Amino acid sequence: MIELKNVSFVYGERGVHPVRALSDVSVTLDNRGVTGLIGKTGSGKSTLVQLLNGLLKPTEGQVFLDGGDIWADPKKIRDVRFRVGLVMQYAEYQLFEETVRADIAFGPKNMGLSGEELDRAVADAVRFAGLEEDLLDSSPFDLSGGQKRRAALAGVVAMRPEVLVLDEPAAGLDPGGRREILGRIRQYQKDTGSIVIIVSHSMEDMAMYCDRLLVMNDGRLVMDGTRGEIFSRAEELGSLGLDVPEVTKLAAALARRGIDIGRDVYTVDYAVEKLLGLLGEGRGSHGI
């Protein structure tokens, strides 16, 4: 379990123009499915995830990992970063070694892994990220944007973190690549029982791959619920500058025509299920 308790964060706190990025955020994150974090640009999402592994220290409040304040002993914050892995929004900022292989091995090596154990951790992470093995001896800076994203993901997964935080993990990938990597991340959560948090602007991705959604606005946590609960509040999301999945819009349009399949429809498969349910009830007179 990882918990933020009354956390606020101010950039440039002692400067002339301080900027408050988070205000009194309290939330508990656990391993019951994948958690999605959404909000318009500047809502505080990236600041929040950098607080989870100690890249940033709260201006006020505390961050707890398994009940312990991660800043209780600042000298041990490095250990927290092994346990809470963060794939940043801009993968190129996370790559720095001479080769892709060395970059992926950097984290587990610093955890004390060596020899066959290190090789196995790297190989498992490479397979998980879907990275071609013939790229491992290349410079990470010669990779495409999508390949850099996969390499950064592999470098974090190689440490086998208890908490995996991903800021726009599918950025730079084509539609097929998006489905592949997000599907693997969801399966990773099921297989390992890890806490997994995904930040994304894609409502379709959030609907398809997340179980719980947190909504940020102006540095505050304003909604917390299942994907069905959150997407059923389409008007409120719109007032926050956020969209809903296209199929949710379709469900609303059907409701206006007298075919009510619910406001919590968020995937095509779920929409089909609800429509078939109406047909099974003998309510096809609406023209379904």
Your description of this structure?
It is a single chain. By secondary structure, this protein is an alpha/beta fold. The protein is built from eleven helices and ten strands. The strands form two sheets. Strands 6-7-8-3-9-10 form a six-stranded mixed beta sheet, with helices on both faces. It is globular, with a radius of gyration of 21 Å.
Largest sheet: 6 strands, mixed
Number of helices: 11
Instruction: Count every beta strand, where a strand is a DSSP E run of 2 or more residues.
Output: 10
Distance, first to last CA: 45 Å
Structural class: alpha/beta
Beta content comes to 15-25%
The average pLDDT is 88
Oligomer: single chain
> Globular, elongated, flat, extended or rod-shaped: what is the shape?
globular
Give, in spatial order, the strands making up the sheet with the most strands: 6-7-8-3-9-10
Radius of gyration: 21 Å
Unreliable residue stretches: none
Helix content: 25-40%
* Element-level helix/strand string: EEEHEEHEHHHEHEHEEHHHH
Keywords:
6-stranded mixed β-sheet; 4-stranded antiparallel β-sheet
Brief synopsis:
The chain is 40% helix and 21% strand.
List the helices and strands and how they pair.
Layout lengths: L1 E10 L7 E11 L4 E5 L6 H8 L7 E6 L2 E2 L7 H7 E4 L12 H11 L4 H15 L15 H13 L5 E5 L7 H18 L2 E5 L3 H7 L2 E6 L2 E7 H5 L2 H6 L6 H11 L11 H13 L8
Parallel strand pairs: 3-8, 3-9, 6-7, 7-8
Antiparallel strand pairs: 1-2, 1-4, 4-5, 9-10
